[in-house]
Amino acid sequence: MALHYLLDGYNITNKINLFQGSSLQKSREKLISYIRIKKPQGRNQVTIVFDGKKEVLDYPIDASPVDVVFTHSISADECIIKMIEKSDNPKLVIAVSDDREIQERARLAGAKAVWVKDFFKPKRKRKREENEELSFDELQEIKKELIKRNEI
Predict the structure, then answer these.
(1) Domain 4-124 adopts which CATH fold?
(2) How confident is the model over 39-43, as a mean pLDDT?
(3) For the chain, which residues make up each domain, given as ranges?
(4) pTM of the predicted model over 0.90
(5) I want to staple 111 with a disulfide (CB 3.0 to 4.6 A). Which of 55, 106, 130, 138 is the partner?
């Protein structure tokens, strides 16, 4: 069962300097690109929720597999809580925000909540299963290292 991360978009872009840009659009693009490339959510589903304003409602985005939601008449906070409440299994939902109200309401609705810094904290690599195969990229890295050490 995969988890579903709900990210409070502007809360994150305002908390982490890496995502601050010259405009709201640049900040959004930086966050979305980071999530797509670095995958702090792992293989889990992720939805980034932004407060919607008229000038950004039609924001074109091809961020698959990242879902991006712009709220219309409600706040991103309310949208996140509604998404949790509508979830078939709130225990598999994790809200990512430094907003204490989102944290509390998410937990009351049966979901988990994590602080922004904890979500973006580098994950420790898990111990490889004994029979698990290496990926092509991992094999290439090993080959480069062996060449560097003059072992092949």
Answers:
(1) Rossmann fold (3.40.50)
(2) 90
(3) 4-124
(4) no
(5) 106
